[in-house]
Design brief:
- The protein contains 13 helices and two strands, in the order H-E-E-H-H-H-H-H-H-H-H-H-H-H-H.
- By secondary structure, it is an all-alpha fold.
- The protein folds into two domains: 52 residues; 233 residues, MetI-like fold.
- The chain has a two-stranded antiparallel ribbon.
- The longest helix is centred in the N-terminal third of the chain and has 52 residues.
């Protein structure tokens, strides 16, 4: 009888513990519900809808018509799509390495906890906090041909003004500068967090063994920043690939298609040409390409997210 009572008591305690753990998990899950609802409603469902719409012909005012993969076939025949894809790759090649290198240099210079470093961090981080519309408008004014501050100083020192946003090459360079200016401060913060996680004992030991600062950076600092570097690389690729606002405000994709990246091309297809199904197909391929680029970049560098 005593054994049975002990067994019942153990079973009751086990049930009570399981119930307690379930209540704890349930109470924590409740706080996630608003975020999950937001994620499902504004991210997951739209992504699924875009995938579905890509198989339809739809011009908003007309009913949707299922056409299978015809949108994707037409996309590969579309010269403008290939032009915008090439422009996007050029923009990536200009902005991603520059953002990575500049933000890393800033982090190495400002990772210390002194007052000067803290002030300068805020100075370089500020462009990232500014709304994209404000940043784009500011840059458009700075590089304006007739009223821009850059050309004003060029004229003052006896040089001719430059049509920064009217030439195909100069417009893409100007947009790249604006992109790096807006992102470098944020990526700098990510690198600073990574630098603070590196044990200082490693640097001190290497220094006592006669290693130079360059050797310490090459063999200690850089390898231990792999996690931060991966985050910076993926985020920079994502931001550069989908930076619609900056392009739209500064150049509207011009001259011609010289600064039209794929995200801006999707906007033009959907809201100026009203080819919703085709725009959805281009969006799907754009997302796939951006994911592949990020994965390949990490694979080539032998880094894992």
């Amino acid at each position: 009888m005593r054994v049975n009572n002990d067994t019942l008591l153990n079973n009751n305690l086990s049930y009570q513990n399981k119930k307690k753990r379930f209540n704890i998990i349930s109470s924590r899950f409740i706080f996630l519900i608003p975020s999950l609802v937001f994620l499902i409603a504004f991210t997951i469902i739209p992504i699924i809808m875009i995938g579905v719409i890509s198989f339809f012909s739809w011009a908003l005012i007309n009913p949707m018509k299922f056409i299978g993969i015809e949108n994707f076939i037409n996309m590969f025949k579309d010269a403008n799509f290939w032009t915008t894809l090439i422009v996007t790759f050029k923009f990536e090649l200009l902005t991603v390495p520059l953002t990575f290198v500049i933000s890393l240099i800033l982090a190495l210079l400002l990772y210390k906890q002194d007052r000067f470093s803290l002030v300068m961090r805020g100075f370089f981080y500020w462009p990232y906090t500014a709304p994209a519309v404000v940043s784009g408008t500011l840059m458009a004014w700075l590089f304006s041909t007739n009223t821009g501050l850059i050309n004003y100083f060029l004229i003052k020192i006896g040089l001719s003004p430059v049509s920064w946003l009217q030439g195909s090459f100069t417009a893409l360079l100007t947009l790249s500068f604006a992109q790096v200016w807006g992102l470098a401060g944020f990526m700098m913060v990510i690198f600073i967090v990574g630098l603070h996680e590196i044990p200082q004992e490693l640097n001190e030991s290497a220094s006592l063994d006669g290693a130079t600062k360059l050797q310490i950076f090459r063999y200690i600092t850089l390898p231990l920043l792999r996690g931060s570097s991966t985050i910076v690389l993926v985020l920079t690729i994502s931001y550069s690939w989908n930076n619609f606002t900056l392009m739209y405000i500064m150049t509207t994709g011009g001259p011609g298609y010289a600064t039209t990246i794929t995200s801006l091309y999707v906007y033009q297809l959907a809201f100026t040409q009203f080819r919703i199904g085709y725009a959805a197909a281009v969006s799907v391929i754009t997302v796939v390409i951006s994911i592949v680029i990020a994965l390949v970049s990490m694979k080539v560098l032998k880094w894992e997210a």
